Amino acid sequence: MKKQLLLSAVIMLLSVVLAACAQGSTELAPPDIRYGEDVCVQCNMIISDERFASAVAYEVGPGRYETAAFDDIGDMLDWAAAHPDQPLVAWYVHDYESKEWTDATTATYVVTDQVATPMASGILAFAGADRADVMAYGLGLKTSDWTTLTTLHKAGEIGSGAMRQGGGMGGRAPSDGK
Question: In the chain, how many domains are there?
Answer without folding.
Answer: 1
